[in-house]
Amino acid sequence: MSSSNEMMVNSTTQKIRAGLKKRYAAERRFQFYGIAGISIAIAALVILFVSIGSKGYTAFVQTHIKLEVFFDPSKVDPTGERKTDVLSRADYAGVVKASLRARFPEVKSRKDKRRLYGLISSGAGFDLRDMVIEDPSIIGTKQALWLVASDDVDMLLKGHISRDTEEDARPIKNNQIAWTDQLIADGAVETPFNKRLFTAGDSREPELAGIWGAIVGSFYTMLVTLTLSFPLGVAAAIYLEEFAHKSKLATLIEVNINNLAAVPSIVFGLLGLAVFLNFFHMPRSAPIVGGVVLALMTFPTIIIAGRAAMKSVPPSIREAAAGLGASRTQVVFHHVLPLAMPGILTGTIIGMARALGETAPLLMIGMVAFIVDVPDGVTDPASVLPVQVYLWADAPERAFVERTSATTMVLLGFLVTMNAVAVMLRKKFERRW
């Protein structure tokens, strides 16, 4: 009898051990799958950042060429009266061309002269104009100036255009390369930090294009979005979570809010095109329209995050406040809302980060227009960073490729910063019950 009991015990023990072995093996496999998934995600993220960074880091420097520029009074100020309107209309491009001819006097043919002029950016004349208007006393003098090189020269020196390519297959020709090498040998070429990238608006010329206009446009758009979506979203969350009676209407509203959070962003763009532009005739390609459209898109995210944050506040807080005589409004605004605010802010920042990276709805409302000037307000035409990336990615010039990647790096920097702020706010103010 005892032998039979021992066999039963051994059999049960073996089954338990086999079950435990399978369970531990399943746990190890689950951990392996989790670690593998995280590793793949990190690897993909690293590949993305390396790919963008390797193409875009060269945009943060820009090639300049040193020339002796003579501000010929006959070209700059033929009247000699130093009037601003005359100085602003002067032939500064001719001044740059004359400086290049003086630097390379051996260039005689018209064809070679056109190629010689192609070493310097067409925007160099505007830089000279600004210098003369700021200080008219330089008229009639010769100045050693660093002028912006053309995008072809810039791409050559950065290695994006190969010298070994056949001449007919590259935008920069052999004699232009020879002149550039001569300037390098004379110490007349340098590649300083590209301040223009962060101080100028868009341009048709890659070497003159900057993202400041898009940054300001993004700021105004996000300002309108936050101003509309945050107070309305928090108010709606408070009402639905704390004051609304459980009814079919409330349930219908909750279902629709959850559905709106999953609607493709381009649908909001179509709504903005049909309602705000075609019906209300709001200004096209303006931050105020983009902000309203993005506010509608961010609105459900803030409501859902706000309700979840308020729901996480323990009922004992409400009961204690009510027991001390607080009204329903006092309970919500003096106790529940302050405790839920970290979660609400986290959801708001995440929603704003998503809005900052959106392109499709803004394309539908006309923010794809070519905007050179930096906007002064929410009603001025403007672009935003994601749309600027879209515009430059479609440009044929090779120099816009690096600027596209550089702008993407700046945009990713903003997004990472916003998400990091959300994480820090949650960790600093979150309370565990």
What is the CA-CA span between the terminal residues? 56 Å
Helix count?
18
User: From the 3D coordinates, which CATH architecture of the largest domain would you assign?
Assistant: Orthogonal Bundle
Percent helix, as a range, is 55-70%
DSSP strand (E) fraction?
under 5%
Rg over C-alpha atoms, rounded to the nearest angstrom: 32 Å
Low-confidence stretches: none
Q: Helices and strands: which structural class?
A: mainly alpha
Order of helices and strands: HEHHHHHEHHEHHHHHHHHHH
Report on the structure:
- The protein contains 18 helices and 3 strands.
- The protein has 3 domains: 2-58; 63-192, no CATH class; 212-429, Orthogonal Bundle (MetI-like fold), CATH 1.10.3720.
- It has 433 residues and is mainly alpha-helical.
- The protein has helices spanning 2-56, 73-76, 84-88, 92-103, 110-117, 124-134, 151-157, 174-185, 196-199, 212-243, 248-260, 265-277, 287-311, 315-323, 328-356, 360-364, 385-393, 399-429, and strands at residues 64-70, 142-148, 189-190.
- Helix 4 packs across helix 6 and helix 10 (212-243) packs antiparallel against helix 15 (328-356).
- It has a 3-stranded antiparallel β-sheet.
